[in-house]
Amino acid sequence: MKLEINHIKKSFGKKQVLRDISLTAEKGECIGILGANGSGKSTLLTILAGVQKAGGGEFLLNGENLFKNSSLRSKTVGYVPQGTPLIDELTAYDNLLLWYSKKELKAELENGILKLLGINEFIKVPVRKMSGGMKKRLSIGCAVAKKPPVLLLDEPTAALDIACRQDIAEYLKGYKAAGGILFLTTHDPLELELCDRLFIIKEGLLTPFEFDGNLQKLVESL
Amino acid sequence: MRKYFYLQLKRLIKILPPLLIACLVISLALGVFLGGMIENDKNDAKNQKFKIAVVGSTEDSYLNMGVKALETLDSTRFAVEIEQTDEVTARKNLESGKLAAYVVIPKGFAEAAYRGDIMKIKYYTTDSAVGVVSIFKDEVTKTISDILVDSQKGVYGFGDALQENTSISNIGDRMTALSLEYVSLILKRSEIYTVSVLGVSSGLSTAGYFLCGILTLFILLLGIVATGVFIKKDNSLCRVISAKGGNALWQVASEYLAYFLLIFLIVSLVLTVILGFTDLSDVIPDISWLVLADIPLLLIKLIPAVALITALQFLLFEISSSLVSGVLLQFLTAVALGYISGCFYPIYFFPESVQKFSQLLPSGIARVHISNCISNAFDNKLVLAGAVYFAVIMLITVIVRRYRIVGKE
Questions:
Q1: A-contacting residues in B 12-31 (Cβ below 8 Å)
Q2: Is A118 on the interface with B (CB under 8 A)?
Q3: Domain B48-188: CATH architecture, name and number where available
Q4: Would you say the ipTM is above 0.85?
Q5: Which CATH architecture best describes the domain A2-83+147-221?
Q6: In angstroms, rounded to a whole number, what is the distance separating the alpha carbons of residues B305 and B217?
Q7: How does pLDDT run across A112-127, given as a tens digit for each residue?
Q8: Residues 6+ apart with CB under 8 A from A126
Q9: Where are the domains positioned within chain B?
């Protein structure tokens, strides 16, 4: 499986947020995207997810342009945004029903992804009563319905405690090991360790970055 | 994405009990308000009856009959209310403002009339400022005097003529009947006042108008109770749904439909209780045609009004960013639109320009439509105007939702 992002552009009015974004990713790879606030990281992910349109460029999965095939894109790309993409008044079970059929849900809770994420422990809990970690795990559980080969995560462990971050990092490792491609935007050193390759978005351009553990160097690069 | 709609419904069902409690509070408050408005209107009507006391001897049957006729045959709104009392009480009541005037029929008036002599009836009124009302009071009181005198002259004279010149039996009974008819005709032909029913909308009575106004206001205020549920503090779910093919139009349609069904259910419950299980037809005669079996059809006819108001409320949810601002926006909009659309006062109280402006507002259209439904009229043009308004409001809502999806946090 090969993923290609070619010359993606995006402008908001006169401001060009993404000028020329290109990269490739292979099966089992995790791509980390870093950048200062407002640099365009989230914009890139929303474009790849299909939330908004690019001003130009291609998004190819095994040669198929996902920008022109929204049906294929919605099946092959999972998206976990910042925030809580859940309905507060409903339980975890009800929220998952938006993305899974009852049969699929039962199977995944018993012995699948949702069990791996530990969602069966709080399946009947209303979202408004969940902790941040539970909500994030549930959000990931919703995004990986239909088992998409590509998963986009926008700061997945932001505002979570270390234990939760560890749990989610473990799950993502498992996802990678199973052959999925991960794109994540991050500021978290734990997540940086997860990434096989890192890129920095700066002034609308994507630049590879080698992280050797030196945070100071990272900050200066941003 | 049908699932999204079902989940919205499920979500609303979960929070239905507290919503119903909030609606009950609003219903009770508005019910008291409506009752007060109707009572106030009735009192105004009562106060417009000029109370005049008749003092003195009315032992004579004809005189007594004349006074009684005035008391019981008056079927007009702006009428004279007559009471018989003694002069001390009448004076006291006049001074305290309970009477507009009193007339004193002197002793021997009837006997003098039999002889063909007319004794003057004195009337007493307050020395108030000379205004239209005072003049009117004087005119009415004067008319009463004249009616009493003239009617008695006619009755006595005619009765005497019949007795002297005919052998008709039961002249007394026939004279009574004739006199009652005579007095009735005089009252009906009075030039002192004309009576017209207030021109409320759709031919409704004032009470019926108030009912429709309060119902419109009730639906407007229901937006407040649902604010906490529909305000979006986080756009991430909208984005994820959009990524999976559920565009802004679909999202708005699913959420709006669930909201509309909720509000329609609440309105249906309230109206069924009020119209089906309470007897308000004495107070609000316009609903006297309604029986329990008519209510489902009435509710269906109300759908355009409910849809229009709920569309506006949904747009306000969409543009609000926090619970406090959302509640304030719903409340202030409800009160402002309710006021200008004639929910608090009959619309004809306002200047012509405001009345015309009110007809252009969604709440104004809704109120008139509700009035048409209660009075069993139906205006297709109005429904069409409402439909256009609805479409425009929903279009704006979709645009705002689209902005939320693609815009920055």
A1: 14-15
A2: no
A3: 3-Layer(aba) Sandwich (3.40)
A4: yes
A5: 3-Layer(aba) Sandwich (3.40)
A6: 12
A7: 889 888 899 999 999 9
A8: A88, A89, A90, A91
A9: 2-42+201-406, 48-188
